[in-house]
């Protein structure tokens, strides 16, 4: 999701003050949309479940399928993916390489080796006999976050500019590597370990009823990634080039990009409602396993965050860099994983459901990790992050509260 931070931080003081007070460790507050996002998702899911009890609703959703693509979900997924990509500051990608090479290597290793492997391992431990759940976890694990992670970085007092550079880099790597990773984690690796992930319930209508098995191929996943990542990426890049030339960079990042936030939110809620409506009958009997799936997700977030933060400290990173690296490695792009899961396995499938569960778990867990990060700052960086002076900290906090700085630094 691509969302913004409300201007409520006590850290950002009036510019008329000649000597700003040192910032406190209390994080700036989230906007209502951000703070209650899990609630909005739960309400959308509940609405979908209720509507799904009416026979006409699942029938209507099924009738909106063209080939293997459900038009309702396809539109919702594309609308979800465009806003975060539209706000990425692509010119900052080179700054990721300007930092300490050890930090870039650490970020790459955590994002593209450790995180996917850990997610797969946890899913294999908890759901080794459930192919659908295992596949869903794997799709989430190799989808790097490109939007909402900037909120967590800002709340924790991280380096927004460095975070934007890492996000731009991860966006390009996702476009190039996601299909390869997904194929390896869903087919090659499970086969080598004796796990059956490739055979997931799926029917010709694309709605996932249990009739036959879907044999995953890299070409199929690559096509789905091209649709749900490539198309929004191309539109976002073209729009950025055209609108910046016509209206200027300031207008683009302060007016246009922020206006897309509500589109992304509504698209997510619409897609969740349709997904749960299509699965309403089946969900009534499988609610317990879905709730149990929150456990490995929570373990994943805690382990990736703590290991990345600790390793960043060992590399001599400042607090702002540690927080930035930890949150970029921990957060996931559940919009992309949902799109690929629906297109590959069907709307009424366990892999699609796992992407929704990931979103439900990630928001509150990340808020807890913000407080953990601030605790680590007090415990291990008593001198304001060691390499950060007071002015640098104040600029970071102002960026989290100032609309203009937030628009230019986010994503």
Write a short abstract of this structure.
With 411 residues, this protein is mainly α. It has 20 helices and two strands.
Rg from C-alpha positions? 21 Å
User: What is the level 1 CATH name?
Assistant: Mainly Alpha
Estimate the mean pLDDT confidence. 77
In total, the number of strands is 2
Assign an overall shape. Answer: globular
**Helix/strand structural class:** mainly alpha
N-to-C span? 10 Å
Description:
- The chain is mainly α and about 400 residues long.
- It has a two-stranded antiparallel sheet.
- It contains 20 helices and 2 strands.
Q: What characteristics describe this protein?
A:
single chain, 411 residues, mainly alpha, Na+/H+ antiporter like fold, two-stranded antiparallel ribbon, 20 helices, 2 strands, disordered N terminus
Task: Describe how the helices and strands are arranged.
Blueprint: H1 32-35, H2 37-52, H3 56-63, E1 65-66, E2 69-70, H4 71-86, H5 95-98, H6 101-127, H7 131-141, H8 149-155, H9 160-193, H10 218-247, H11 249-259, H12 261-278, H13 280-283, H14 287-292, H15 294-314, H16 319-330, H17 334-345, H18 350-380, H19 390-401, H20 403-409
Antiparallel strand pairs: 1-2
